């Protein structure tokens, strides 16, 4: 699932598309990507839109893994434009049903935050680092330097999701989970998709590319960033991630074959 039509367009070119279906204004492309049966779709923006898209993927297409990519604003000052945040913890910064429930708690659950499987987070981290190590083979130095992307990094981070496009650094302080757990990136879909996946008991990952610093300049280069940078990142990281998964599956299969080998065939002769 991509948060931008431009990212979906690039990934689509890598896919062998077998079917296309529009449901509720969302077009779902089914086919294969890097050997995996895949359904590709633009999330649309905001929590409601993205969770509805996720529900269709889970319910109708019966996906068994949801990979989300998109752009986000940086809240943590260590993050620069072009860095990648793999969500290790996500929450809805605008969920506030006090005094009925504690701030951030999702009604009817005891959850304040959502956390994807750590193994997948690690695999995504490896995949994103691999992509960034070869970034210049995908995006020219001229374009990278236009956005001052020099040494982009990957972090596992805390992502705050809400139905606001944040353009004011004063808003950052009020959205932290706690004094010890501060939001590092802000966006509009991740924790909603995470909620739905956890309710359906399906694994997922939220990967965000920092497009802005969630300040007054957040919208200035956003479209240029999406058209020149983040669409490439999303495709590159998704493909690397699928290769990592494929290698893991192959390794596991080999381990299984190894474990089937009978050390002493005479045990079968009785
Ligand atoms: N290209 C669009 C902009 C979409 S902005 C246009 O100009 O029409 C909405 C997307 O940006 C969402 O996916 C949201 O998650 C992400 N995003 C990026 N920076 C953000 C910020 N500072 N605050 C909130 N969401 C942000």
Describe the structure.
With 270 residues, the chain is of the alpha/beta class. It has a domain of 176 residues: Rossmann fold, CATH 3.40.50. 37% of the residues lie in helices and 22% in strands. It is built from seven helices and eight strands, in the order αβββαββααβαβαβα. The strands form two sheets. It has a five-stranded mixed barrel, surrounded by four helices. A hairpin with a 2-residue loop joins β1 and β2. It is globular. The site of S-adenosyl-L-homocysteine has 19 residues, from β4, β7, β8 and α7.
The whole-angstrom Rg is 20 Å
Q: Helicity level, as a percent range?
A: 25-40%
* Shape, principal axes of CA atoms: globular
Largest beta sheet: what is the strand line-up? 4-7-6-5-8
Give the CATH topology of the domain at 66-214 and 223-249: Rossmann fold
The H-level CATH homologous superfamily of the domain at 66-214 and 223-249, spelled out, is Nucleoside phosphorylase domain
Strand content: 15-25%
Task: Note the run of SSEs as H and E.
Answer: HEEEHEEHHEHEHEH
Heterogens: S-adenosyl-L-homocysteine
Uncertain residue ranges? none
CATH architecture label of the domain at 66-214 and 223-249: 3-Layer(aba) Sandwich
| CATH class value of the domain at 66-214 and 223-249 | Alpha Beta
- Structural class of the helices, strands and pairings? alpha/beta
Biggest sheet layout: 5 strands, mixed, barrel
**β-strand number:** 8
Ends: how far apart?
Answer: 56 Å
Q: DSSP helix count? A: 7
- Average pLDDT works out at 95
